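thread: overnight batch results

M.L. [08:02]
morning all. the overnight job finished for the chain we discussed friday. pasting input first so we're all looking at the same thing
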Amino acid sequence: MTTVSDVIAFLEKFAPPFLAEDWDNVGLLVGRHDLPLNRVMTCLTLTPDVAKEAVDRHVNMVVSHHPVLFRGVKQMTDASQEGRMLLTLIENRIAIYCPHTCFDSAAPGINQQLAETLGLTQIQPIRPIPEMENIGGGRMGNLPAPTTLRMFMATARQCVAAPYLEYVGALTANVSLVAVACGAAAEFLADAMRLGCDTFVTGEARFHTALEARAAGINLVLLGHYSSERPAMQRLADTLATEFPGLETFASLVEQDPLSMFTG
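M.L. [08:03]
and the structure it wrote out:
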């Protein structure tokens, strides 16, 4: 019988804990290591509707990219939404594991997957960890052939199934050397500029980051936080299903981007 510890052992090889940023909260955050597993569900973020799905589908373990209990807590009661959600999961004996920035920076992690999905070649970390092959923060790489920002964004939007993109730059601008950092990773813009990239792709960024990109003359493409990371959690479910054929493993069906686009 596969246990929580078995899945953790695999995930810690796949996305080693030492890759976590200092501010992060990763690993097994709720549950027992010796809990037997029948069903595992992946998601980007544990929200009340996703938690209800886990209960309704008799899941034993949730692998959520974004951590629960991100900030220190002194109590867990039904007085808060997160408290109610976590108490429900605990009462239903559902474990929660969160890889977060470990998964972002791992060799087969989200940024590597995103760079490959966008068609980049000669991919390497933006912030490499010394003496570690293809491990580190962000990714950068070349397109097989230069293209325009318009064409690049059309491809990128289709690749991550984003309903829309936001961008800085001229639609006719050249795109050749591209930096990628999933989620809310605008701090990598300075790295992208230092490395001579003409385009920086991330999930979301603040207004002043957009102004900085415009002033520096670097293309900035925002895929949306959800769109930049959710596909990798779907693939992780497939990876776990292959690694543990005795488990029923799947990605959440109810999870969706909390942001919608108003066009009326």
